[in-house]
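Bug #77: duplicate submission created two jobs. Keeping one. Sequence:
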Amino acid sequence: MIFAFVKRGKEVWKTPEDFEVYLEKSREAVRKYDAANQDKRIAARKVRYDANPEKNREAARKYRADNPEKTLERSRAGHEKFRERERAQANQWNKNNPEKHRDNFNRWKAENAERMREHNRNWARNNRGKINAQRREKHATDPKFAMAMRCRSRLGSALKAKGFKKGSKTADMIGCTWEQLCAHLETFFTDSINWDTRSTWHIDHIIPLASAKTMEELMELAKWTNLQPLFGPDNFAKGDKMPHELK
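Kept job's structure:
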């Protein structure tokens, strides 16, 4: 077989072997030109794209529809290549547009609630040691966090002992925010009962949770108005006694 073609106005004949060599030389010449004139090529491509935007968009859509696997592979490769740059750009945009970022994130969470819960469960399952270390550090340095953990633990134990199931958040059961509960406890503070001595006192239920016979009664006793700080030994001595039994 002989390949015939026109080069610079002249007819050229080549054997398959010579033609393959010719093609490779031509490809190499094109690669060198493209590498040396990248800016020109990009500018020329942009001019062509701007002149036919809809035509190019339609061609891109058709290519993606006809080549889904290649499109996905290229998308992943591009994302991996520019991951750090994209992340830095996204972080900068989030800082410059905090309200839009918050609205977008809240909308995404609402539309992907189950996906978000599954992600959080998997992350917590795979980072249990890190979570526990953070909690221990925060428990030692943040009195409000330590108080919230105490309340959650105590109410959880009371519900389990009674065979009840927790149907709402601890803060909802207490009936106020953690900040409001802190302010309430601070009304009982003395020189010996304060946040600096929080390891020596308990958060006591004035009317014991153990006295509740129904879930409704327990919910009522869990309210912030039934809470007070009490030294550990005094709380142990009190046990499940009612206030009138202590007199």
